[in-house]
Design goal:
By secondary structure, the protein is of the alpha/beta class. It has one domain: TIM Barrel. It is about 35% helix and about 15% strand. It is built from eleven helices and twelve strands. It has an eight-stranded parallel beta sheet. Helix 2 crosses helix 3 (about 95-105). The longest helix has 14 residues, at about 30-45. It is globular. The protein binds NADP nicotinamide-adenine-dinucleotide phosphate. The site of NADP nicotinamide-adenine-dinucleotide phosphate has 29 residues, from helix 10. Its EC number is 1.1.1.358. It is an enzyme of class 1 (oxidoreductase). GO terms for molecular function: 2-dehydropantolactone reductase (A-specific) activity. One of its GO terms (biological process) is ketone metabolic process. It comes from Ogataea philodendri.
Length: about 325
């Protein structure tokens, strides 16, 4: 079967702006690797880069973006740069974004995401931990993710970010934001989503509420374990493409933005190659979780931050 190649497309956000549906992920990319991979990505045609305060590579992302813009006919507004506020910064988002912009050497970001739905104590480093290694959170009764989000929205009015959103959230928590008076609805929700954790309920909920979903760890995170899955391998053989192409194209077929990370030049280029999957294959990949469900990322908190998602509930 010869594959039907698909281009990277832009999706409309609920504030009228657009977001490219494939981004380069940069988590765990060391500063040098990060500079090279962002440069490779931009030169290859990516226009969307995903970083975060906690990845400690915003300086490299910014250097690569600015160096690229000097050499290219593209302008800053042709690129889409996302960074994330860390939980230890939630109580002072203006300082946090100004620090990120300084590291990035940019006047604004396109998307500023709350990295989690729980705030952490300030003044004890980037990932404050107790003696048992648990991240030190602030009780949601004292300062909740809604309180943090309320402060974040002022950054749009100030022009530091074009859009805001939240990571690692579930539908009931989004519903609470949507029902809270005087809050801008999140433009984007970024969560772990892949064939072992398809989060069907969350994706449908966001679609119904006009929120763009971003699928992180689309290959199963470090080492790309999903690429060994027998169904994905079989579908890749059927279309004559790589398993990575199938996993990434599946995320796109569901209408989500996908964020594959690589620091390998050839893979960065490969991960832009999208195909049109038949509906039956999209559904088949979407049912793999019935055989195998796995969440790859679970930060160590004393409270459960991933509660009540229909597809996966670590408490039950
Ligand atoms: N908001 C959040 O809390 C959060 C959490 C996790 C991730 N994210 C974002 O989502 C991005 C992606 O998630 P992720 O980094 O966890 O994992 P991922 O993209 O699912 O997988 C990355 C791994 O796959 C390998 N890989 C990439 N392309 C490949 C290919 N074509 N063939 C074979 N192996 C390939 C990479 O190796 P090499 O690099 O060695 O090539 C790396 O080991 C992150 O980088 C970050 O930007 C956000």
């Amino acid at each position: 079967m010869s594959p039907n190649k698909k281009p990277i497309e832009s999706l409309k956000l609920n504030n009228g702006l657009s977001i490219p549906n494939v981004a380069l992920g940069t988590w765990k990319a060391s500063p040098d690797d990060c500079y090279n991979s962002v440069m490779t990505a931009l030169k290859s045609g990516y226009t969307h880069i995903d970083t975060a305060r906690i990845y400690r590579n915003e300086v490299s992302v910014g250097r690569a973006v600015n160096d690229f813009l000097k050499q290219s006919h593209l302008k800053r507004e042709d690129l889409f740069i996302t960074t994330k506020i860390s939980p230890f910064e939630f109580q002072d988002p203006e300082n946090a974004i100004l620090d990120s912009l300084e590291r990035l050497q940019l006047d604004y970001v396109d998307l500023y995401l709350m990295h989690h739905c729980v705030a952490e104590v300030t003044g004890e480093g980037i990932t404050p931990r107790d003696e048992n290694g648990f991240r030190k959170h602030i009780s949601p009764e004292v300062f909740s993710y809604v309180d943090a989000y309320r402060l974040l929205q002022n950054l749009v009015a100030k022009g530091y970010t074009k859009s805001i959103g939240i990571c690692n959230i579930n539908s009931p928590k989004i519903q609470r934001l949507l029902e809270t008076k005087d809050l801008i609805p999140p433009a984007v929700v970024q969560c772990e989503i892949h064939p072992y954790l398809p989060q069907h309920e969350l994706v449908e909920f966001c679609k119904a509420n006009n929120i763009v979903v971003e699928s992180y760890s689309p290959l199963g995170s470090t080492g790309a374990p999903l690429l060994q899955d027998s169904v994905i391998v079989e579908i890749a053989q059927k279309y004559g493409v790589t398993p990575a192409c199938v996993a990434i194209s599946w995320a796109v077929a569901r209408g989500t933005v996908v964020l594959p990370k690589s620091t390998t030049a050839q893979r960065i280029k490969e991960n832009m190659f999208l195909i049109e999957l038949d509906e039956e294959d999209v559904n088949l990949i979407g049912s793999i979780y019935k055989r195998m469900t796995k969440r790859y990322l679970e930060p160590k908190w004393k409270i459960n931050v991933y509660d009540s998602d229909a597809d996966f509930n670590p408490l039950t």
